[in-house]
């Protein structure tokens, strides 16, 4: 009989995420060990507690979740976790700070229902945030051409550098999207637009979106009205607006939750998984027939 | 099948209450998410984690408990919790900082066994503390006349204002109770005296209590000898001392514990309960035949 | 039916030990109440939450574990725990900061398989650390003669004073072990050597160990190569090297884990156990036939 499922929750925020804990319980975790305010130097002893307590097959009954509101800190913590393993003495771990990996996977999955990712040209608006970066990374990884949008072209270029560091051969372009003229240029010839900006800020008006005749998919990830893409409703889940399939934050959120739980369950299948953006998206694709 | 019962414990103290956690487990909570040192600005993301993770009927399988040693901070946290809800996106919540609501409900229930609350004149000694304030509030809400006692009449008046803000039409009087003469005047014509003062301080001598011929109930909430009311034993649970029914802290404590557990169980019956003093006392009354 | 098993984990480190939590789950604990950064003045309310919530036989379904990386702080916390009890209102508690009590019990048990502790002369190297102090204390308690070794004779003497304060009539000698000549003198006529020094530091070379013809047992508690005792492998578990039975850190670690779990289970059998070095070693001896 296998040991009780224990999840070590490592969170960069002072108060560890309740959201992540509730999802973990609903994915079958039996004991949560929740740690808030975790700094990189705290990580090794926490991880050692997971790998030196259960042996052999029982190692897969312990896993680690790295979260918090800041993805850069989460990435540093994930690196500290994997450094603390000793060869086969390891447990599975996933990173989902700010929900960015599971949200980006759900958004990219929505896009993939309508176009072939490898041959698609996409525009990501609000791409400098954690979710936007992850969406750009997944779209680039799939082989498409990605326009990384920000009001500041300099910040957009920084995101391109970050994505290129993870995806060799990525086809990326930094685009300024502050004005209507810049937006029109950025959107030209795109099949896909994804908005991942701040809550309550419209990044693209409905008329301008509809005026782009190559557009086939519009995904908005902002749950607080007004939505980031004019004319897209938070509940949209593939609703056709002319020839554009529309997705809103709540429409994508259901899929995000399924991916989040599937990733948590995956952690307990082996003791060697490291689930970051790409691995979580691959998992999402493998379960896509259910969504 | 319903989801596992999760209780988010929000505590104003740096180390969250073990007492509240043990009672929660014994009331059937399956997963505790314990947060200490919670400030009002921490509350919204914690609450969002409870309302954005489970939908529909499953919302009632998550609930929130607000505790800690300081009731004023607990009240502020409770307000922050209810502000963080979005319409029907809410879970049930109870406030019991310092155990004040459940203790005051148990004390008031003891009083109600012997007199008609609506037509009773009561004196609350040590009324400036968290439990005393809640007792005064419950007795006033039931329609009785309440004398709010403190060594400082000014502080007593502040409590009256606080109670009046919660109970419209409350019949309250601030009384100084520092000297024997003041105490005698304060006690005159009262049927009920409740002592909710600091541990180990006698507020009213046995002789003076027995000398008040209108008195029918005496409740002392101090568990550390000497008791607050002379001649009342911590174990008393309705023992008659002449014509006065006496209750001590432990005698009341058993009822308090039942009320505390019943309130916790109540949280998981619907997703919209907000349990403060009055709601917890109403619950206590509905289960009074068991006590 | 008994109540769910609750363990209050009091840890002196800011992030409470994951190691101790996982072992607790595997020993059958159903709910962990984990507290990090606990100072002595925090202890009383935490303990009161364990003793004022469940009555009678149910008190034995709650227990306390004191841990953290610093044994001196753990000892202070344990003292604060026992002070917070009220006569029979108490729960069982164990101290195992740094794993020192369970590791020392496992090391001493290994020694006892090969020699009669009461008539043995032992040298403890690296005796100033938490594990070394506990090993010296257990060997002295069993009646043997113990040489307490450190590079600094003054620090060794301080450890002797500490052990003597716990073990009346202890036969102790402080020895300097910084040079090969000092080591040779310290080892002379010893049947036992135990190394409890810092990770990755060889305290005694293989040749010098083998050159001691009275030696029968060598126990090394350092899991990071090079081991503290030259020629002893971390996996050794009674392997004979000439006439010397050798034990390495992992070889001892399996027994340590069994003792740790047995001590945790013992907590829930009565409500009055206080398990420090001696009690944990006695428990280890009673289960020794399994090891």
How would you characterize the overall build of this protein?
- Three copies of one chain form a homotrimer.
- With 291 residues, chain A is α/β, with parallel strands linked by helices.
- Chain A folds into two domains: 129 residues, 3-Layer(aba) Sandwich (Rossmann fold); 150 residues, Rossmann fold (3-Layer(aba) Sandwich).
- Chain A has ten helices and twelve strands.
- In chain A, the strands form two sheets. Chain A has a seven-stranded mixed β-sheet with strand order 7-6-5-8-9-11-10, sandwiched between helices. In chain A, strands 2-1-3-4-12 form a five-stranded parallel β-sheet, with helices on both faces.
- In chain A, helix 6 links the parallel strand 6 and strand 7.
- In chain A, helix 4 crosses helix 9.
- Chain A starts with 5 loop residues before the first strand and ends in a 5-residue tail after the last helix.
- At the A-B interface, helix 1 of A face strand 2 and helix 2 of B.
How many alpha or pi helices of chain A? Answer: 10
Structural Rg of chain A: 19 Å
CATH architecture of the largest domain in chain A: 3-Layer(aba) Sandwich
Q: State the helical fraction of chain A.
A: 25-40%
Oligomer: homotrimer
Structural domains of chain A: how many: 2
Which stretches of chain A are poorly predicted, pLDDT < 50 over at least 5 residues? none
Q: Main sheet of chain A: which strands, in order across?
A: 7-6-5-8-9-11-10
CATH topology term of the largest domain in chain A = Rossmann fold
**How would you sum up the major sheet of chain A?**
7 strands, mixed
Strand content of chain A: 15-25%
Morphology of chain A: elongated
Terminal Cα span of chain A: 32 Å
- What is the string of helix and strand elements of chain A? EHEHEHEHEHEHEHEHEEEHEH
Largest interface: A-B, 15 and 19 residues
Per CATH, the class of the largest domain in chain A reads: Alpha Beta
Strand tally of chain A is 12
Structural class of chain A: alpha/beta
Annotated CATH homologous superfamily of the largest domain in chain A = NAD(P)-binding Rossmann-like Domain
């Amino acid at each position: 009989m296998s040991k009780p499922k224990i999840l070590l929750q490592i969170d960069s925020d002072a108060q560890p995420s309740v959201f992540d804990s509730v999802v973990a319980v609903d994915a079958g975790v039996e004991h949560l060990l929740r740690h808030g305010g975790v700094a990189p130097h705290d990580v090794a002893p926490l991880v050692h507690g997971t790998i030196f307590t259960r042996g052999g097959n029982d190692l897969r009954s312990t896993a680690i979740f790295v979260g918090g509101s800041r993805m850069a800190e989460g990435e540093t913590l994930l690196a500290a976790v994997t450094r603390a393993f000793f060869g086969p003495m390891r447990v599975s771990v996933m990173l989902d700070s700010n929900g960015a990996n599971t949200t980006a996977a759900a958004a990219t999955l929505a896009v993939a229902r309508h176009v072939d990712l490898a041959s698609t040209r996409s525009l990501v608006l609000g791409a400098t945030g954690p979710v936007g970066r992850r969406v750009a990374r997944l779209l680039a990884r799939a082989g498409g051409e990605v326009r990384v949008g920000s009001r500041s072209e300099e910040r957009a270029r920084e995101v391109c550098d970050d994505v290129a560091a993870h995806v060799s051969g990525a086809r990326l372009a930094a685009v300024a999207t502050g004005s209507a003229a810049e937006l029109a240029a950025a959107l030209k010839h795109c099949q896909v637009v994804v908005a991942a900006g701040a809550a309550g800020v419209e990044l693209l008006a409905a008329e301008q979106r509809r005026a782009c005749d190559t557009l086939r998919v519009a995904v908005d990830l902002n749950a607080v009205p007004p939505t980031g893409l004019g004319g897209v409703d938070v509940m949209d889940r593939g609703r056709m607006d002319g020839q554009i399939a529309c997705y809103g934050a709540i429409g994508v959120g259901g899929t995000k939750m399924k991916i989040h739980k599937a990733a948590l369950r995956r952690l307990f299948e082996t003791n060697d998984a490291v689930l970051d953006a790409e691995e979580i998206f691959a998992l999402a694709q493998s379960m896509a027939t259910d969504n």
